[in-house]
Design goal:
The structure is a single chain. With 70 residues, the chain is mainly α. It contains 4 helices and no strands. It has one domain. The longest helix is centred in the last third of the chain and has 10 residues. 17% of the residues are buried.
């Protein structure tokens, strides 16, 4: 399966384009609305890679699960 969602995909794009991923993201406390704690980035700019680093989430597993749900 080709990944449609990748490390550089923005959180808001994932939630907008792939609503089937929203529950999983919320389970990980990722909502795209309150992630402005990364200095120099507005929440709308945050990518999956940004959030995975900030929240200490395995990026590859995150991408695998998100792509499984689309």
């Amino acid at each position: 399966m080709d990944q449609k969602i990748n490390a550089r995909t923005r959180i808001y794009e994932v939630m907008k384009l792939y609503p089937g991923t929203t529950d999983y993201l919320l389970e990980l406390n990722i909502c795209g609305c309150s992630l402005g704690e990364i200095p120099g980035k507005r929440s709308i700019e945050l990518t999956l890679e940004d959030v995975a680093k900030e929240k200490n989430i395995n990026l590859e597993k995150l991408l695998e699960e998100l792509n499984r749900r689309i």
